[in-house]
């Protein structure tokens, strides 16, 4: 596969294929139902239009970015992606936060929850990276330290769940993943020791309760849609739709499901349905990246047969040995 031509040197894997678009649309339908249910609830309960319209705009922006993102090759840029997550997460600690809580980064008139925006795609990058890379240890330690200092118990718990899934699938390739799991567990326990002093916002943390007060069926649809969207990454596995990256899909599903679980059991944001644009965009970015790392498509639309790579490598090695023997004999 030739990379970089016609795209400013940025590697692509052949453009969004129909199979990838189908998988993206499957996630898109579930997430759109969740977003629409949250917006409908906000409208019915008197929230300002500017609040819930922002969620709709964020959904379309995320979709518009995820489609081309699903065609990008992250094999050479996973370090850069993790570095961006580390730097932007650390930026939340600069300056005073409301009630001593540091979770947001400001961009103009918008304030993004850095963890909900960046950690989903960071989880995918952790699943793409070589299992024994020291870069993973450094990036994960920095992210977990930031989560403990913010503090953000829900995101620290979700990150721990994702790392646990990756550790279960990769520790034999690199025992270093047991250290990674320990780092994430320590960060979660540290964040749990610091109480969250922020009062819950009805249209963010309490959106399900508001929906139930208006229409119980709408609340049920909302929860089901968020659950389906959160479990969707687990369907992108072993050869679906390309080269297998099962660990990344299962890890992302664990992260999303635990994030939702914290929102259901405590006063934490309900992703997708609550009035917050950060998880809407962040989940779309992760969806596009997950399909990108699970797909390898040539520019002519064909897929390489990775089963033959080892067979082709063996004669190449034997040819190199014979060439060295000939050069030795001639000398």
What descriptive keywords fit this protein?
mainly alpha; disordered N terminus; 331 residues; two-stranded antiparallel sheet; 2 strands
Itemize the secondary structure elements and their pairings.
Layout: H1 18-44, H2 49-69, H3 78-91, E1 104-107, E2 110-113, H4 114-128, H5 134-149, H6 153-170, H7 176-193, H8 207-214, H9 216-231, H10 246-265, H11 277-293, H12 309-330
Antiparallel strand pairs: 1-2
Helix pairs in contact: 1-2, 1-8, 1-9, 1-11, 2-11, 3-4, 3-5, 4-6, 4-10, 4-11, 5-7, 6-7, 6-10, 8-9, 9-10
Low-confidence stretches: 1-15, 238-245, 296-318
Tell me the strand percentage band: under 5%
User: Which bin fits the share of residues in helices?
Assistant: 55-70%
The averaged pLDDT comes out at: 81
Q: How do you describe this structure in short?
A:
The protein is an all-alpha fold and 331 residues long. Helices cover 64% and strands 2% of the residues.
């Amino acid at each position: 596969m030739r990379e970089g031509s016609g795209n400013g040197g940025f590697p692509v894997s052949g453009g969004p294929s129909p199979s990838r678009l189908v998988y993206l649309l499957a996630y898109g339908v579930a997430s759109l139902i969740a977003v629409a249910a949250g917006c409908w609830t906000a409208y019915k309960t008197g929230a300002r239009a500017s609040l819930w319209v922002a969620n709709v705009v964020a959904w379309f922006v995320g979709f518009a970015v995820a489609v081309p993102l699903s065609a990008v090759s992250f094999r050479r840029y996973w370090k850069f992606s993790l570095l961006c997550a580390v730097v932007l997460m650390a930026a939340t600690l600069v300056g005073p936060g409301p009630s001593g809580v540091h979770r947001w980064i400001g961009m103009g008139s918008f304030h993004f929850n850095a963890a909900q925006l960046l950690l989903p795609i960071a989880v995918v990058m952790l699943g793409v990276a070589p299992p024994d890379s020291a870069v993973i240890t450094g990036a994960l330690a920095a992210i977990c330290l930031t989560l403990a200092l913010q503090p953000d118990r829900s995101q620290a718990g979700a990150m721990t769940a994702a790392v646990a899934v990756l550790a279960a699938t990769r520790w034999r390739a690199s025992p270093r993943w047991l250290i990674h799991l320990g780092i994430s567990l320590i960060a979660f326990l540290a964040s749990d020791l610091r109480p969250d002093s922020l009062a819950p916002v009805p249209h963010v943390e309490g959106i399900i309760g508001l929906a139930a007060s208006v229409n119980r069926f709408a609340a049920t649809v909302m929860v089901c849609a968020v659950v389906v969207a959160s479990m969707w990454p687990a369907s992108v596995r072993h050869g679906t739709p390309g080269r297998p990256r099962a660990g990344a899909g299962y890890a992302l599903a664990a992260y999303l499901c635990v994030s939702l679980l914290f929102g259901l059991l405590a006063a934490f944001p309900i992703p997708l349905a609550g009035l917050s644009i950060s998880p809407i965009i962040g989940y779309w970015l992760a969806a596009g990246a997950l399909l990108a790392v699970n797909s390898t498509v040539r520019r002519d639309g064909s897929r390489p047969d990775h089963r033959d790579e080892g067979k082709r490598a063996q004669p190449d090695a034997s040819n190199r040995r014979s060439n060295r023997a000939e050069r030795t004999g001639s000398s």
